Amino acid sequence: MRMVCITDLHGDPASLDRILSHAGPADVVLLGGDITSFGTPNAAEFLARQAMQHGAQVLAVAGNCDSAAIDARLADLGMSLFGRGVTLQGVGFYGVSAMPPWTGTMYELSEDEIGAALRAGRGQLAQPQLEVVLSHTPPRGTQLDRTRRGEHVGSLAVRQFVEQVQPALLLCGHIHEARGIDRLDATTIVNCGPAYEGYYAVADVDADVQVELVHVRACAGSGR
User: Fold this and answer.
1) Residue 205 — very low, low, confident or very high, per pLDDT cuts 50/70/90?
2) So what's the pLDDT on residue 54?
3) In 3-state terms, the chain is what percent helix, strand and coil (to 5)?
């Protein structure tokens, strides 16, 4: 299974089209939150349907710059992984939206709510061969949740869940400057980077997991 993983699009349809055209065919497109920048459900749906036009299954969670209303729209479209489990070609997908409490002015969930959503989604899987988690927020205390000031601001609940369950792959975003690949025990963790700047990731999942971080520039003739 080939997955194109896009996070932190922040409402940029031109970047989405550029990434999907550059990435080529995929079985699944994963939208990992901050689909909009405090936009409407209609704006999120527009971008999600744009991703569908490239012929792949689209699965998504919302980010802290989205909203609960956007999560509800993604669920109505059959794309949501927030507290929901989907099995495709033997791969189980589930996820969690938003971010842990911070300012109280964004889409935020308590750590208990984050953990509960992950457990609920996993509980809906139909005996997958391996598991893929889509979380807007990285797990706490990795290379992928470190801010420019050196602070770790990821989710404790996501980290605890990964340590306990050890899914094959966790895809996240949120901390734009912490793009990269890390590991927690048996789990490969990927911060895909900000899609509005042309960053994304490609994951090939078979008996194992292979991930490539990709950057497509706005100028013509650019490559990986």
Assistant:
1) very high
2) 85
3) 25, 30, 45
* Spatial strand order in the sheet of 28-32: 57-61, 28-32, 2-6, 199-205, 209-215
Calculate the average pLDDT of the chain. Answer: 95
**Which neighbouring-strand residues pair with 201?**
5, 213
Contact 6, 31 (CB under 8 A): yes
Smallest Cα–Cα separation from 94: which of 130, 55, 40?
Answer: 130
Q: What is the pLDDT of residue 219?
A: 56
pLDDT of residue 217: 87
**In this predicted model, which residue has the larger pLDDT, 102 or 195?**
195
Predicted TM-score of the model (pTM): 0.95
Q: Return the number of other C-beta atoms located less than 10 Å from residue 184's C-beta.
A: 18
Cβ atoms of residues 57 and 29 within 8 Å: yes
Sign of CA dihedral 108, 34, 156, 124: positive
Q: Which positions ≥6 away from 191 have C-beta within 8 Å?
A: 7, 138, 144, 145, 172, 173, 174, 175, 178, 179, 180, 181
**CB–CB of 173/194 below 8 Å?**
yes
Strands 169-172, 91-96: pairing is unpaired
Closest CA to 160 of 118, 204, 199, 205: 118
User: Both tokens of residue 9?
Assistant: 């699009």
- Average of pLDDT values for 198-214? 94
